[in-house]
């Protein structure tokens, strides 16, 4: 979930608690979809270009973070990237079963359980699944904040160019700006990792501007 779809739906009225905490099958560990196949699924299920961009942005952030901050290699970072790329893939087509449908699709495709559980963790208050691993915590951190920063870029004539952490923090404190973005979710997500909000915003600003 994020700012991109809150414009269209009042999500809390129908978001479902998944009612489970185990996802996928451990025998599928290491089975990662290739990125091309994930893009095909994304295009099949999501017609809204802005929603697709949101997922590509979260994917790029997850991949870059895995490579640069977690010491993951190309294969390891693909799990992070896939979770970001598909986390809202079912939002447009199955709004009443958001998260459940993409999880079941990836279970059908016998994808690595770490990817599936990571997707289930992107909204603990809504889906009832608590992030445990760093990968699970980071998707929650990046989801809402990435959308918020993109909203800030959209109202600036120069877009991402010259945007700094201070201006993002100021907009976060301006509750009338992108009012649908839940500031409590952002604080809750940041509070679960050993990084402060400035560091995360800076990382997003450094990487998100290249995603188109
Ligand atoms: Fe999202």
Give a description of the structure.
- The chain is an all-alpha fold and 212 residues long.
- The N terminus is likely disordered.
- The chain has one domain: Hypothetical protein af1432.
Salient structural properties:
single chain, 212 residues, mainly alpha, Hypothetical protein af1432, 11 helices, 0% strand, binds fe (ii) ion
Number of helices: 11
**Secondary structure category:** mainly alpha
Q: What name does the CATH topology carry?
A: Hypothetical protein af1432
- Specify the CATH class: Mainly Alpha
Strand content: under 5%
Cα separation of the termini: 20 Å
Q: Residue ranges: pLDDT <50 for 5 or more in a row? A: 3-13
The gyration radius over C-alpha positions equals 16 Å
Bound molecules: fe (ii) ion
Main sheet properties:
none
Number of strands: 0
How many domains comprise the coordinates? Answer: 1
Write the layout of secondary structure elements.
Layout: H1 3-6, H2 35-45, H3 49-69, H4 74-86, H5 100-108, H6 113-120, H7 124-127, H8 134-155, H9 165-173, H10 183-190, H11 197-208
Helix pairs in contact: 2-4, 3-4, 3-8, 3-11, 4-6, 5-6, 6-8, 8-10, 8-11, 9-11
The protein binds fe (ii) ion.
């Amino acid at each position: 979930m994020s700012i991109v779809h809150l414009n269209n739906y009042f999500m809390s009225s129908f978001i479902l608690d998944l009612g489970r905490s185990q996802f996928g099958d451990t025998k599928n560990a290491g089975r990662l979809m290739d990125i091309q196949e994930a893009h095909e699924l994304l295009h099949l299920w999501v017609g809204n270009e802005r929603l697709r961009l949101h997922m590509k942005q979260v994917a790029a952030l997850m991949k870059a973070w895995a490579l640069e901050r977690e010491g993951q290699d190309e294969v390891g970072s693909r799990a992070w990237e896939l979770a970001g790329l598909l986390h809202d893939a079912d939002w447009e087509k199955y709004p009443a079963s958001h998260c459940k449908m993409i999880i079941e699709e990836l279970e059908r495709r016998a994808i690595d359980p770490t990817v599936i559980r990571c997707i289930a963790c992107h909204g603990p208050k809504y889906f009832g699944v608590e992030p445990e691993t760093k990968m699970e915590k980071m998707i929650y951190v990046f989801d809402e904040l990435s959308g918020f920063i993109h909203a800030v870029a959209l109202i600036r004539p120069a877009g991402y160019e010259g945007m700094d952490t201070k201006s993002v923090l100021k907009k976060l404190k301006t509750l009338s700006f992108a009012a649908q973005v839940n500031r409590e979710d952002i604080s809750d997500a940041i509070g679960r990792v050993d990084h402060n909000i400035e560091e995360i915003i800076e990382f997003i600003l450094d990487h998100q501007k290249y995603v188109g």
